[in-house]
Amino acid sequence: MEEGVVNEILQGPLRDVFDSKQLITDISGSGNNWAVGHKVFGHLYQEQILEKLRKSAEHCDCLQCFFVIHSMGGGTGSGLGTFLLKVLEDEFPEVYRFVTSIYPSGEDDVITSPYNSILAMKELNEHADCVLPVDNQSLFDIISKIDLMVNSGKLGTTVKPKSLVTSSAGAFKKRQEKPFDAMNNIVANLLLNLTSSARFEGSLNMDLNEISMNLVPFPQLHYLVSSLTPLYTLADVNIPPRRLDQMFSDAFSKDHQLIQADPKHSLYLACALMVRGNVQISDLRRNIERLKPSLQFVSWNQEGWKTSLCSVPPVGHCHSLLALANNTCVKPTFMDLRERFTRLYKKKAHLHHYLQIEGMEESCFSEALSSLSALIQEYSQLDATKSMPVEDLPRLSVAV
Amino acid sequence: MSIVTVQLGQCGNQIGFEVFDALFSDSHCTQGLCSKRENEAYRSSCKERFFNEEENGVPIARAVLVDMEPKVINQTLSKAVQSSRWKYGQRSCFCQKQGSGNNWAYGYSVHGPRHEESVMNLIQKEVEKCDSLGGFFIIMSMAGGTGSGLGTFITQNLQDQYSSSLKMNHIIWPYGTGEVIVQNYNSILTLSHLYRSSDALLVHENDAVHKICAKLMNIKQISFNNINQVIAHQLGSVFQPTYSEEGSFHYRRNPLGIDWQVQPPLSRLPTLGKRSLSEQLRFNTSIANLVVLRGKDVHSADVAGFKDPALYTSWLGPDNAFNVWKTQRAFSKYEKSAALVSNSQFLVKPLDMIVSKAWNMFASKAYIHQYTKFGIEEEDFLDSFTLLEQVVASYCNL
Questions:
Q1: What is the CATH number of the domain that holds A247?
Q2: CB distance B103–A209 less than 8 Å?
Q3: Is residue A52 part of a domain?
Q4: Is residue A24 part of a domain?
Q5: In terms of one coarse class, where is the protein primarily found (chain A) (predicted)?
Q6: From first to last of its 398 residues, what are the pLDDT tens digits of chain B?
Q7: Which residues of A touch B71 (CB under 8 A)?
């Protein structure tokens, strides 16, 4: 809802990739106000949005999925972005909606981000098929780690200079204090690996609709923790199995996650491993066997692994792994968000900015809060089953 | 006598290719260990059974390829063409763009009715090219969405449309520790429905074949290619022409017409190798067994061990329950080879496992909303569970 970023894209090296007719901009932005993004701009631009969506959809032989990419803490991405979700659901009910959401980190410079995030969460709960939460702190840590690797030039472990992880799209831009380009590159890789099996051949393909089918056991619980490896790669091509196994171990380490969470000590509802490159089914199975004992799965999904093998590795790497986990470890993130929200809301701080927008009432806030609380409650109930012994339920007895 | 193969989904198509390749390689093998005339008869019988002749002499597989997304079929077609020894018919495939999302309900209730006419037409065309139709061989996996859901739907249609023809479903049993999280649901839905419409279910377990690759073949890095090739090899050894009892110049035996006296069974092929009798059979009661012997000294082979009444049930003795087919022509350059197709309690344990896991998951209602979305209700699940519990109980009571 302001022109700066879009204009930059249209003048940058990828300008030919984007259709300049398929954009909507305004002048003043949403002022970090979810209500402005959702109610004001949503209402204003609804027709235009629909029209441009329909136009894009017409070009598709078979439309399977929408990717919505936004942040939760601001006004446009958060407000207008979630408004868009509802539009997509109404207009294209059979098409999947995958949302990549950047959640606000602890040290976040937008004061109203808790309000925006909670209001957006309600929409994500109700209208998204699948959400991949990402937070800036994790991305920053990953980039720092890579920088460390590159600068220290450790023996045997180097980052290939042209590899996808380190090349920055906006190379002409100065490296700022917060290197957003490099961080965004990580998220881009997430989406690349997510779609790799749909784009390339492999011995065990996995489409986007399979992600939703396998990783979302109950409609509300659709938040997936993602982790990517490798973040650095080995210089030699023939990688003996031991190093390959290291890639799998890394995927389950906190350092490689795109959100601050601790899945190993929480409960797994389901886990997907999307492998790219010269990896075969025996490698996959060996590693699952190896890692399984240290992970806790919910009682009704003890072998809850979804796997895919894509033959084509990412540029500059020999193989890679994307792990998507539906795990109760997202609960602390949501609880933290609720905490920050409550602190502001109790004092009614900045509330007037929202309530002065037509269509916004206090009930919007309380409803959003209870939606989040219900979600947290569901995760808590599952967590409670964690240490219970797994028993087989009595089966049907039939007359022979 | 010809067999029409229907390959469904990624698994079905990948395996189907290996099967035709194995059949072709074997039939053109020069070391048949038999007379030239014998070899010729074998080759032409195999050809008639599985291939069609084109003008320029390149054999075309009697197959229909079905998948709900294009990548695998394209790969399969081009692999065949690249081998330049045989190929698939240009218009023998049916393909969509979207896939079935590992959802049995989607494959069965959405893709099935939507594409029924197209797929059945393709099959019809293939049938018309056969002088005499031996039956259908349907290759599918249980864990996914297309093979399992659409495969079941098509099998039911074949039952309606070609009720007098034999149908054998080749089912791939998924790895115990997941390839697909909802594989147990997909499996029980598949099995319970196929029980009512298929004549025979030939099963290959990924776990078992994986072990063969690892332990017997010592392959270090096992790929799906390896696995599929082992499966194709086993199938080939059963499906290639064998003598009928009467004449020795006519390869008559219809592998699909294996006489199973009772309900559609689950049968299994253990390892190939030199002719040897495994002692484990003693702990496993069989309804019926078929041994296929090929190669040297085949007529003097001693199969007495298979005729032990202790192996069989009280109501079907070895005279009726045990069959042996012998062919002098060697398979795939093996001097001697044996294959065992068995309708026995081998599969009770795996079946029981799958039902158990599916039941546990069902009790928590996990993932059910993905199925009810497309018309498969909880009742349908319960029906499936009931039927399979009966199957397990029946086999246990042998």
A1: 3.40.50.1440
A2: yes
A3: yes
A4: no
A5: cytoplasm
A6: 888 999 999 999 999 999 999 988 888 877 667 778 778 888 888 888 888 887 677 889 999 999 998 899 999 999 998 888 888 988 899 999 888 999 999 999 999 999 999 999 999 999 999 888 888 999 999 998 999 999 999 999 999 999 888 888 999 999 988 789 999 999 999 999 998 888 888 889 999 899 888 888 888 888 899 999 999 988 888 888 876 544 333 444 555 544 433 332 233 333 222 222 333 334 678 888 888 888 887 778 788 888 888 788 877 778 877 888 888 787 877 778 888 888 888 888 889 999 999 999 999 999 999 999 999 999 999 999 999 998 888 888 87
A7: 201, 205
Give the residue from A232, A227, A219, A298 showing the smallest Cα distance to A256.
Answer: A227
- Our CA angle for A293, A297, A299, nearest 5°, is 120
Of B203, B182, B190, B184, nearest to B348 by C-alpha is B203
Cα distance between residue A325 and residue A157, in whole Å: 27
Angle at B118 between CA B115 and CA B121, to 5 degrees: 140
To test the contact with chain B by mutation, choose from A96, A209, A288 the residue with the greatest count of B C-beta atoms within 10 A, namely A209
CA distances from residue B283 to A71, B203, B280, B302 in whole angstroms, order as listed: 62, 20, 6, 21
Query: Parallel, antiparallel, or unpaired: how do β-strands B286-295 and B322-327 relate?
Result: parallel
Residues of B in contact with A382 (CB under 8 A): none
| Contacts with A, B 108-137, CB within 8 Å | none
Phi-psi region of B274 (alpha: psi -120 to 50; beta: other; left: phi over 0): beta
Closest-CA residue to B149 (of B100, B192, B84, B91): B100
Q: What is the DSSP letter of A26?
A: -
DSSP 3-state of B204: strand
Angstrom distance (rounded) from CA B354 to CA B334:
36
CB spacing of A392 vs B356 below 8 angstroms: yes
Task: Note whether residue A2 is domain-resident.
Answer: no
Backbone angles phi, psi at A257, to 5 degrees: -85, 150
> Do B386 and A270 count as a contact with CB atoms less than 8 A apart?
no
A186 touching B (Cβ < 8 Å) = no
Q: Please name the residue of chain B whose CA is at the shortest distance from the CA of residue A305.
A: B178
> Chain B, 238-267: which have a CB under 8 Å from a chain A CB?
none
Set of chain B residues whose Cβ sits within 8 Å of the Cβ of A393: 359-360, 363
Q: Which two tokens stand for residue B99?
A: 């896939």
Q: Using the beta-carbon criterion (under 8 Å), do B363 and A300 form an inter-chain contact?
A: yes
Count the alpha carbons within 13 Å of A284 in the hemisphere toward its beta carbon: 31
Please tell me whether the overall predicted TM-score, pTM, comes out greater than 0.90 for this model: no
Is A150 inside any structural domain? yes
Which of B111, B115, B180, B183 is most worth mutating to test chain A (most A CB atoms within 10 A of its CB)? Answer: B180
Q: Which domain holds residue A244?
A: 32-167+180-334
Within 8 A of A64 by CB-CB distance, chain B residues are 97-98
d(CA B263, CA B377): 26
Domain count, chain A: 1
Contact A203 B225 (CB under 8 A): yes
Q: Chain B contact for A238, CB < 8 A?
A: no
Residues ≥6 apart with Cβ < 8 Å to A101: A70, A71, A72, A120, A124, A131, A132, A133, A134
